[in-house]
Every structure is written in structure tokens, then in C-alpha cells.
């Protein structure tokens, strides 16, 4: 009796294993290493928080609103295209798919072929770094 149950479970396990092969695999979830690298690029290299995070009265990042968006308190001294609002990018709410967000970070153009307005830099991340930045930003609560 016991061995029948064991066999049934064994078949079930194999069945599930086989299904995983037949059903097309979904995109791999981001690894911890990718998220960590993305955090490093965002916080220490590209300094996204300079514009996308509000500051405290002491001029430090308001960590309770990390990458939740901010109104910039400066403007250009001569007329030029300029948007003084950096939107919230925690969770990357403005991109339906990771691919669109990666394209934006790799080319500076969004899926409509449009560039973000200055002072948003037109980044040219390489693909692996774009994957990491997107993984990190998606890991944050909107
Ligand atoms: C110097 C200021 C500044 C820095 C640094 C900056 N941004 Fe921005 N970002 C902006 C502004 C301003 C906008 C709004 C532009 C617009 O509305 O066209 C913006 C827009 C965006 C958008 C929205 C684009 C869209 O189409 O909805 C994303 C995503 C974004 N930034 C990501 C980042 C990331 C990721 C970094 C760091 C790797 C970063 N930004 C660094 C100022 C900045």
C-alpha cells in the first residue's frame, strides 16, 4: 500500500517536471546578484536619487521616499527644454514591460521613440547593466 502511494507521488513529481519543460518557461526572475548590481549602479554610479528622491531640510536623501519622485529646485539660466519634475521610479510604474525599460536605459528613447526631457540624462547602459538597474528598480515598492 505504502509503495503504491510512493509510486503515485513519484509519477506526480515526474509529471510536474515534464510540464515545466512543455510549458514555455517564463522570464527568469532577477537574481540577488543582479538586484545588488543594479542598486550599486543606481545609488553610487548614475546617482538617480539626485533627482528622483526628495531631500530633507539637511539636503540629504529622504530615505522614507527613496526614488519616489521629486520636484527639482533649480532651473537652467537660459531657455532650453527642461522638466522640473522627476517622476517616481521605484517599481518603474511607467513601463509595462521590463524590455521597454531596458530599451529606455540603453538608448535614451522610450517605446514611443521619444526621449525624456532634460535634465534626465540619456543613458547608454550596456545590456547587462540595464537588466540589473531594471531588476533593482522593480524590486522597490512603488
Ligand atoms: C539630473 C536629474 C536626473 C537624474 C540624475 C536621473 N533622472 Fe530620470 N528623470 C529626470 C527628469 C526631470 C525626468 C522627467 C523627464 C520628462 O518628463 O520628460 C526623468 C524621467 C525618468 C523616467 C521616466 C521616463 C518615462 O518615459 O516615463 C525614468 C524611468 C527615469 N527618469 C529613470 C532614471 C534612472 C534609472 C536614473 C539613474 C540611472 C535617472 N533617471 C537619473 C531627472 C533625472
Series of secondary-structure elements, N-terminal to C-terminal = HHHEEHH
- If strands are numbered along the chain, what order do they take across the biggest sheet? 1-2
What's the helical proportion of residues? Answer: 40-55%
Task: Identify the overall geometry.
Answer: elongated
Q: Nearest-angstrom radius of gyration?
A: 22 Å
Query: What is the multimeric organization of the chains shown?
Result: single chain
Distance between the termini: 53 Å
- Uncertain parts: none
Highest CATH level, the class: Mainly Alpha
Bound molecules: heme C
- How many extended strands? 2
CATH architectural grouping? Orthogonal Bundle
Mean pLDDT: 91
Topology overview:
Layout (H helix, E strand, L loop, with lengths): L1 H21 L9 H14 L3 H4 L17 E2 L13 E2 L11 H10 L19 H13 L3
Antiparallel strand pairs: 1-2
Care to describe what's here?
By secondary structure, this protein is mainly alpha-helical. The chain has one domain (31-139): Cytochrome Bc1 Complex, Chain D, domain 2 (Orthogonal Bundle). Helices cover 44% and strands 3% of the residues. The chain is built from five helices and two strands. The chain has a two-stranded antiparallel sheet with strand order 1-2. Helix 4 packs across helix 5 (127-139). The N and C termini lie far apart (53 Å). Bound molecules: heme C.
Amino acid at each position: 500500500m505504502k509503495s503504491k502511494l510512493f509510486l503515485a507521488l513519484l509519477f506526480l513529481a515526474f509529471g510536474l517536471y515534464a510540464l515545466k519543460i512543455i510549458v514555455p518557461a517564463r522570464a527568469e526572475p532577477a537574481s540577488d546578484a543582479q538586484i545588488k548590481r543594479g542598486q550599486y549602479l543606481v545609488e553610487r554610479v548614475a546617482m538617480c536619487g539626485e533627482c528622483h528622491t526628495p531631500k530633507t531640510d539637511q539636503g540629504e536623501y529622504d530615505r522614507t521616499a527613496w526614488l519616489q519622485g521629486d520636484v527639482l529646485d533649480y532651473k537652467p539660466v537660459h531657455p532650453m527644454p527642461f522638466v522640473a519634475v522627476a517622476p517616481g521610479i521605484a517599481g518603474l510604474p511607467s513601463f509595462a514591460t521590463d524590455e521597454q525599460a531596458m530599451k529606455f536605459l540603453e538608448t535614451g528613447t522610450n517605446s514611443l521613440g521619444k526621449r525624456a526631457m532634460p535634465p534626465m540624462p540619456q543613458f547608454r547602459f550596456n545590456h547587462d547593466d540595464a537588466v540589473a538597474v531594471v531588476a533593482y528598480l522593480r524590486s522597490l515598492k512603488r
